[in-house]
Amino acid sequence: MNEMLTGSRVLRGMVGIGGVRRDWQQAQVEAIESTLAVVEREFHDLVVILQASHSTRHRLERTGILRPEKASMLRVVGVQDALPASI
After folding, report:
1. Helices 26-52 and 54-62 meet at what angle, rounded to 10?
2. Is the pTM above the cut of 0.90?
3. Three-class SS state of 7
4. Half-sphere exposure of 2 toward its Cβ, with a 13 Å CA cutoff?
């Protein structure tokens, strides 16, 4: 899709100062719309699967939380006032 739209698989050379280097043709616009419809359906299906998976939700919601006390003990640095008080 990138190559068809921009002439490069890695999106180089399409964007220039002030805009893009060339306009898309109608067939390219239709290809984008068709691809987005497929991606939207597949994404929705994936969300349903992930929400139904207890183990995946556990990994995404509970694994890897670094509490302020532990961060302080480990001398982890970073923006501190951005942490919610409930953590």
Report:
1. 90
2. no
3. coil
4. 8
